[in-house]
Specification:
- The structure is a single chain.
- By secondary structure, the protein is of the alpha+beta class.
- The protein has a single domain, classed as Ribosomal Protein S5, domain 2.
- 34% of the residues lie in helices and 30% in strands.
- It contains 4 helices and 10 strands.
- The chain has a 4-stranded mixed sheet with strand order 1-2-4-3, covered by helices on one side. Strands 5-6-10-7 form a 4-stranded mixed sheet.
- A hairpin with a 2-residue loop joins strand 5 and strand 6.
- It is globular.
- It starts with a strand and ends in an 18-residue tail after the last helix.
Length: 197
Amino acid sequence: MADRTAKVERETKETKVSIGLNLDGSGETKVETGIGMLDHLVSQIGKHGIIDLAVAAHGDLSTDEHHTVEDVGLALGRALDEALGPREGIVRMADALVPLDEALASVALDLSGRGYAAIEVAWTGERIGELPADLISHFLWSLASEAKLTLNARVLSGVNDHHKAEALFKALGRALGAASRPEPRRKGASTKGTLKA
């Protein structure tokens, strides 16, 4: 099987982001973005997707969190796209339903080669820790766009925003891990013949 790893560097005047990713890892994660809640949530993708993930980001947090959250999502999406390669012989579509206490989240995704996100979640407060709650959807959009995956993510129930967000990212990890797994019986990528744009 081809090497399914990626290393991505993204640097702008606002941020510097470094991503290391191994789709066939053991779930080892190290995430340091300067935003504790973002670190916590992104780590769920690696842990529950059984994907090795190293993320280091330095951004203009004195301005606000927006640029860092967006650029981590973009860089992580790019790393996923690179690690997936031609996407042949993978499961491709998967879903996960994850509870966390009173919260319940659902994620369905398709590693389709087309970036799109449909996200349904209602937050109680403006922030979860130091992370603006509305940036979670922006992170998911950025990730889906660069990873070229179709993402449907919903929080079906919940009261505590931390629980809702964590359940959502755990579900994302589980669905991503399942969809990206090799499927030896699958000979092609799609009925179109390709999953690359």
